[in-house]
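hiii, so i know i said id send this last week but things got crazy w the move. better late than never?? heres the sequnce for the chain we talked about at the cafe, plus the structure i predicted for it. fair warning i was half asleep when i ran it
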Amino acid sequence: MSTPPAPAASAAPGTRPPSVTPAPAPAPPTRRPALDWRVRFAALSLIWGFSFLLIKVGTDGYAPFQVTFGRLLSGTAVLAVAMAVRRDRLPRSGRTWGHLFVAAFFLNALPFSLFAYAELTIPSTLAGICNATSPLWGMALSLVALSEDRPTRRRVAGLGLGFIGVLTVLGAWQGFSGLDVTGTTMALLASLSYPVGWIYVRRTLAGTGPSTLALTGSQLLLGTVQLAVVLPVFTSVPAHVPLLPTLAVVALGALGTGLAVLLQYGLVQEVGPTTAQMVTYFIPVIATAAGVTLLGEELSWNTPVGALVVLAGAALTQSRARSSSGPPRRVIRASPLSRN
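okay and structure toks below
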């Protein structure tokens, strides 16, 4: 952003100002988005909250890797159009492409595939709640991997509270009876994959030349390539193309991966990453409501109660105590490079 020119000194009343080169005309005001940021925030929450329902519907007709490939392909197409409209260029550095390849694996290919496999055996409501543990994983990992993130009592308490919430959701006092351990583990590993990718991006791609949109579009492209390599090995060509699962996969990619990234990108620019990150706390609520009302998934008391405890713990891990002196501590947060 360029600094506006300093205003010329005003002359005394009744005198002629000295001859000076006129200051350039001020830049036109930045065009405001057509929709208020609160509307876009609500839309992003709904899109990401319904993603777990769309995954469930998609896996009714396609293999998990096929769902992930279709999701990435549709999302890449949306971002390619956005990049063309904004005339953003792809990164030119081979080093950047190498880092993006790793980021695509941990932020897209791996978690998307794990969630798809998990929802073969667990309800979409549980997958959405497992996704909400990402800030907890992120806090725990940042204490180890990022030297500037020091533990505080509040953040450690948040981590412990979130762990209690996870145990409540899983019904630990019942010996996890009725719970598919493999599917739940996959969902939790998917939520762990996101902060691993965030930390990697923060260490390697922060402050690089290309725009966030260009980096994200390139990352999704690489994730699509990774799944294209995996598909022939682990899946076969579908015998038919079922309508509803196909529409779910396309919507999952175009809306839940492509449009959602653009919405998040705009929110971060307008209201900052802290406010934009609050969408994380609405996703499990919407995912639970969608799974129960539209898919008829059962919901026991411990699931919503545990989810609220998880969200409270996650909020504590992302909070910072006010300090009168010293620089604020940096907290790891999701960037537009990442997606749920």
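btw Residues 1-25, 323-336 have pLDDT under 50 and may be disordered. thought thatd interest u
miss u guys!!
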